[in-house]
Amino acid sequence: MRAGSATCRFRMTVIGDVLVAQGNLPEALKSFREGLAIAERLAAADKGNAGWQRDLSVSFNKIGDVLVAQGNLPEALKSFVSCDRERLAAADKGNAGWQFDLGISHERIGDVCSWRRAILPLLSSLSPQEGDHRASSGGGQGQCGLAARPVGFV
């Protein structure tokens, strides 16, 4: 069953990637979240399986990427922080792929924090009728630093 679940998770990721390429972000997000649910079950079933732990982190990053594209920076940040690549990179410091993945995760967290710091003042200067839900969701600029601290960033 685990091999079948891993294949299903992979398929959900590929479907999500195709949907992103087609510009269908809501369906891509749904597909990536279905893949995440499978990856969470697999990773929980075998915490020592580094491949499944990495698949879990990839799922969080895919979701974060779609959320960024949708303009939902607070939720994107949560997803990027949840990917927990610190643990994988620390477990095998000689694994260049995991070190690279960690760098990508830090870059994404930094990008979202930078965008939020640039965008929030602009959105907050708009009247409630002119702005949208992103101006009030997720708190202020300082939240980026707080959210990133658990993964050793900032």
Can you put this structure into words, describing what you see?
By secondary structure, this protein is mainly α. Helix content is 74%, strand content 0%. The chain contains seven helices and no strands. The protein has helices at residues 2-21, 25-45, 50-69, 73-82, 85-91, 96-124, 142-148. The radius of gyration is 17 Å and the shape is globular.
Average pLDDT works out at 79
Global outline: globular
Percent of sequence in beta strands: under 5%
Radius of gyration (Å): 17 Å
Task: Give the ordered list of helices and strands.
Answer: HHHHHHH
Number of helices: 7
Tell me the distance between the termini: 40 Å
Instruction: Please tally the β strands and state the result.
Output: 0
Tell me the helix content: over 70%
The major pleated sheet works out as: none
Which residues sit in consecutive blocks of at least 5 with pLDDT less than 50?
Answer: 130-154
Structural class: mainly alpha
